[in-house]
Predict the structure.
Amino acid sequence: MITGHFPIARFETLETPFYYYDMEVLSDTLRAVNTERSVVECSNAPFNVHYAIKACSTPAVLQMIAQAGLGADCVSGGEVKAAIEAGFAAEKIVFAGVAKSDKEIRYALEQGIFCFNVESMEELEVISSLASEMGVRARVCLRINPDINAHTYDKITTGLSENKFGIPMRFLNQAVELCYRLPEIDFLGLHFHIGSQITDMEPFIHLAHRINELVAQVEQMTCTDHEGKAVHPVVRHINIGGGLGILYEHPNHFPIPDFKSYFDTWRTHLQLRADQQAHCELGRSIVAQCGNLVTRVLYIKKGENKQFAIVDAGMNDLIRPAMYGAFHRVENISHPDKEEQLYDIVGPVCESSDVFVENYHIAAVQRGDLLVMRSAGAYGETMASQYNLRRLPGHVIS
């Protein structure tokens, strides 16, 4: 069954491959996010949602998300710039990443972003030095590595003890003390992120309990500030990161991710006072389902034991299957009612890993048919390259 809205007549006039963004799906998704977020806010402290721009940075997509009132989660100076240009308020932008350059830090300080999610004490000192040179103060949250297994693919797990991200828990007190010793730094709170494509709420429950423990640990401290005064740290902001996954296998039946369970989990398990605010950084769950990669069948090739549908999209256009072994549902939108046959659907890139799906049942295809690779709005176009000197895919907005 195909329930996506695909203007096939329009597609036939366009050069493939390209990304197609269904803005009605995006609008419905944003409405669901804001509805479930508001339920949490009614029963607890403010809950701020920042969209993770790395998932999809297509301008029209960013603009709709900004208009819905979300903030932005950025991991480069380029993403901060894109957020500003798309209409995100600077005071709703958070800037993470393990290797922020001096130029990127200066730009973010000039824009007056909400805060830096700092990933090392060395970075903290650099931010302080640059802020001092500019005569401004820098607001920071410390990204702490909580050593929690998200039970997801190893390439998208970020919260284990030896990941490159974040400050190890055993250095937490030291990092907080450094915040107060540096006169240009305003310590706001703590930031966490344990991984991506998480559909079981259990890892989030474990993270909530770990956060509760670490917040209590920080607020039991006594630090000496840059003037030599004793201060007691207060955690005003708690950033729980992102990571909520989607059901790639069933985009027709479950087009909206389970935001209710996600926000209910935090409402139930994260201990928030009235003077604290929570933040999350959702990316994939907001944009994945609205985006699709449209490609055309070039050849049907018979192998010894297999049948290959060779399409004009390649791993340079959608790298997730080659990089992660990720699955995307593929549909024949030219002839959806034909009897299904078994194919390996592969691309033209000169790499054996340029395979989208293997041993896959799909309505029988022929040369010239249009196929769509569903749920490709996250980490699709934004990760595309020109490998083999292929052109970058374009995009079409509904």
